[in-house]
Amino acid sequence: MATTSTEQFFKNPVLGHPAGLFVLFFTEMWERFSYYGMRALLVLFLTASLFEEGWAWPREHALSLYGTYTSMVYLTPILGGYIADRIIGYRMAVVVGALLMTLGHASMAVDSEFALYLGLFFLCAGNGFFKPTMTSIISEMYANHEHKKDGAYTIYYMGVNAGAFLGILLCGYLGEQWGWHWGFGLAGIFMFAGMLQFYFAQGIFGEVGKKPVKTESKEVTEDPSVKRNPFTAIDKLLIAVSALIGLVWIINDPMSKIGGTDVFAFEVASLSGSNFMILLALLVFLILVVARIVRYTTVVRDRMIAVSIFAFFTIFFWAAFEQAGGSMTIFANDYTDRVLKGSAGTIFRIANTLITIIPLGVITWVLCLLFKQTFKNYKWANIILGASFLIIWGLVLTMLYEQHTAESPEVPASWFSVLNSLFIIIFAPLFSKVWESKYNPSVAVKYGIGLILLGTGFAALAYGASDIPQGAQTAAVSIIWLILAYYFHTMGELCLSPVGLSYVSKLVPGRMIAMMYGVWYLAIAIGNKLAGSTGGMIDQVTQEYSLSTFFLLFFLIPGGAGVLIILLHPLLKKLMHGIH
C-alpha cells in the first residue's frame, strides 16, 4: 500500500526528485526569507537612533528581547509538532503556521510597541506549526525510497539557505535604505506568497500530510528488548513545573528590563529571584531526566546519557553562534568601516553582484523546471511563485544599480549575515565528502572542532577590536574581521549542527525520540536565550574592560568547551555502545 501511494511522486520528476519536493523547497525558502530577513533587522531597528527612525533602545534591552524571541522559536515546535501530528495534519499546519507568520510580519510593519510584541507572538506561534512539519512531509513522500532521502534533504537544505541569503540581503537592504518597516513588510509579503503557493499546490502531495486518521491498532516495529518507560504522574508534574517556570522566565527577562514589570522581584539568599527561579527550573528538569534515564536498561541508559552530554555542549555553541543577530550585528553597525572607497568599493560591487546573481539564476532555473512539470495542474501556485520571483529580480537589480552608481558604496550592516548562508552553500558539499570518507572523525571530535572553530571566529573579532578604546560606542574597524568571523563560524556550524539531530535518531530508541528531540530543542532554546543575555552585556564589558575583552570571552568559553568534549571522547565512545 505504501509503495503504491508514494510511487506516483516519482513518475514526472524534477532533477530526479518528485515535483512536490520543489514545492516544499520554495515554501521553505520564503519562510526562511521572512525569518532571517526580520532577524537581520530587529536589533538594528530597536537600537537605531530616533533620527534614523529607530526606537533608540539600550542594547541590553534590544538583545534581551532578541534572545527571548529566538529561544521561543525553538520551543514552540515541541507543541506545534504534537498538534500537527495528532490533530490537524502536516499540510494544514504549514498553512496555519504560514498565515500566523504573515500576520506577525504585517504587525511589525506597523510602528507601535504593541504591534511589535503582537508580531513577535504571531511569529513564534506560526513557527511552532511550520518548523516541524516540512521535513515530516518529505519523510512520508520518500517512503520506500530511502536511497534518495539524502539527496532530497540536501536539496531542501539548499532552499533553507537560499531563503536566508535572499531574506537578509533584500530585507536588510530595504530596511536600512528605504525604512525599517519596509524591510519588515517585505518579509511578510513573501511569507504570504509562500503560503498561497503551498496552498494551491498541496494536491501534488496526494494523501501525504492530510489530517491523521485514528486507527484501532498500530503495528509495533520497535526493538522488543527496549522496555517501555511510561511517564508517571510525578514525571508529568516535573515537566509542568520546569516548563512553566522556564517559560515565565524567558518572557519575564525582557519584560522586567523594558517594561519594568518583574514577576521575580525577590531575593533568595544572595540570588536574585530571576536567577533563583531559572536555576530551580533547571534543577527540576535535571531531576526529571536523571529519574527517567536510570529506569532504562544499561545500553539505552548509556546512550541517552551520551545524547544529554551532547545537548549540554550544544548550549555553548548556540549561545555564541547566535551573537550573529545580536552583538555581531551591533559590531557591524557601530564599529565597522562599511563605506568602501576606490578599489575596495569596486571589489565589493563585483563580488556582491556575483554572489547575488549566480545563486538567484540557479534558483530561477529550478523554478522553470518546476513550471514545466506542474503549471498545467497547479496554475495559480506557479503564477504566484513566478510573480514573487519577478519582484525579487526587480529588487536585486535595483539594489545592485544603486551600489554600482554610488561613488563610495556603503555595505549594509545586515549584509554580513549573508556570509553564513553563502559559506554553507560553498563548503557544505566538501564537508559532506569528508564525512563520507575514511577521514570521518568521531562525533565528539566533530563537536570539539566545531566549538573551537566558532571560538576562533571570535578571536578574529577580538584582535580586530583590540585598538578600540575602552568604553567607545563607535569605531571604524576593517570589514575583514567580520568576514573571517563568519567564515570560521560557518565552518564550526558545518562540523556540529547537522550532526546533533542525526545522532539523536541513531542513539535513542524510536518510542523515545520525541522526548529527546524535545530535550535537544530545549538545549538550543537555552543557548539562544543565553546569546541574548550575554550579548546584552556588551556595553557593560566594553565600559569596564574593552570590546576586545567582550569577544575574547566568546573565544575562551566555546574553545574550552571544544577541548573538553574532545577529551571526553573515550567516555562518549563507551556510552554510545558501537554507534558511530
From TrEMBL:
Compartment annotation:
Cell membrane; Membrane
- Kindly give the InterPro entries that the UniProt entry links to this protein: Dipep/tripep_permease, MFS_trans_sf, MFS_Transporters, POT_fam, PTR2_symporter_CS
- NAD as UniProt keyword: no
What are the entry keywords? Cell membrane, Membrane, Peptide transport, Protein transport, Transmembrane, Transmembrane helix, Transport
Q: What is its main location?
A: membrane
Cellular component GO terms held in the UniProt record: plasma membrane
Q: Which domain of life is it from?
A: Bacteria
Biological process terms in GO annotation? oligopeptide transport
**Its membrane topology, per UniProt?**
Multi-pass membrane protein
Molecular function in Gene Ontology: peptide transmembrane transporter activity
| Regions that span the bilayer | 33-51, 63-83, 90-108, 114-130, 151-175, 181-201, 233-251, 271-291, 303-321, 347-371, 383-401, 413-432, 444-465, 508-527, 547-568
> Which family is this protein grouped under?
Belongs to the major facilitator superfamily. Proton-dependent oligopeptide transporter (POT/PTR) (TC 2.A.17) family.
Give the protein name, as stated in the record: POT family proton-dependent oligopeptide transporter
Name its species: Leeuwenhoekiella palythoae
